[in-house]
Design a protein that fits this description.
The chain is mainly alpha-helical. It contains 6 helices and 4 strands; from the N terminus they run αααββββααα. The longest helix has 55 residues. The relative contact order is 0.17.
Length: 269
């Protein structure tokens, strides 16, 4: 190759190659430091689009799981209150059975009825005061638990709760006859509460199953995203070593290329 004072083509080529090597080395170092091979849109536009879509799906599913947790909390709150109501009704059965037996004095019947009325009042209070996340629980309204789409939701309904809704408000234990009538109503209320708790339990099982499915989906999607985004550490370490050597040799080559113009000066000696 001839010598030229105007252009040092060899130096330009060496400089261009060194710049490419340095850029590649920088990219590998960024991947090693971040653990991801997608650190900008330029790294892999198609892969970045896929990864972003997968991440969006994971975020949606995580929120769906949180929504299901809200439903679970609501149902558990309702079931806890109904459990206490069951205890109260069990006590009501006992005193109604006692009151239905003949031979009690008027004052004794009055004492039993006073306790029975207190039980009714407590059941009504529980129904009115039980809240979850600041809202009343026993409203007979349906709460839709959104699990990712309108078609993928579970309705949670908690009925009303009071002495009136359990048809106990018109009963008393003031006499053996009225106590027998009350006992029938109380047994019916026990069955109603048990049925309501069964319905809540079935819905609770649905939400738990939905959470399990969501957890499995999140795991699979996260694994898929990881395959797209994660850097290949062993490969990057090997490439980093190669590029480091190339960068050093490139700098050496550039230095020699720049010094080649000195040969022209020797022609004048």
């Amino acid at each position: 190759m001839g010598l030229s004072l105007l252009n040092n083509v060899t130096s330009l080529e060496a400089d261009n190659q060194l710049n490419q090597t340095s850029a590649s080395l920088q990219n590998v170092l960024v991947q090693l430091s971040s653990g991801s091979r997608l650190n900008s849109g330029a790294d892999d536009p198609a892969g970045l689009s896929i990864a972003d879509s997968l991440q969006a799906s994971v975020d949606m599913l995580n929120q769906a799981s949180n929504n299901a947790n809200t439903g679970v909390g609501l149902l558990q709150t309702a079931d806890g209150s109904l459990s206490q109501v069951t205890n109260l009704l069990d006590r009501a059965v006992t005193i109604a059975t006692e009151a239905a037996n003949g031979g009690l004095t008027t004052s004794q019947s009055a004492a039993l009825d006073n306790e029975y009325q207190s039980i009714q009042a407590e059941i009504t209070r529980i129904g009115a005061q039980t809240t979850f996340n600041g809202s009343s629980v026993f409203t007979a309204s349906t709460t839709s638990i959104f699990l990712g789409s309108t078609a993928n939701s579970i309705g949670v309904t908690v009925g009303t709760l009071s002495a009136t809704s359990l048809a106990l408000d018109s009963t008393n234990l003031t006499s053996a006859a009225s106590a027998a009538t009350a006992l029938t109503a109380i047994n019916t209320a026990v069955s109603t509460v048990a049925q309501d708790r069964g319905t809540l339990g079935a819905t609770l099982n649905r939400l738990t199953a939905a959470q399990n499915v969501i957890s499995n989906q999140v795991t699979n999607l996260t694994s898929a995203e990881d395959l797209v985004t994660s850097a290949n550490i062993p490969q990057d370490v090997t490439e980093e070593s190669q590029l480091s050597v190339l960068e050093q040799t490139g700098m050496s080559a550039l230095s020699q290329a720049n010094n080649s113009t000195q040969n022209i000066l020797r022609l004048f000696q």
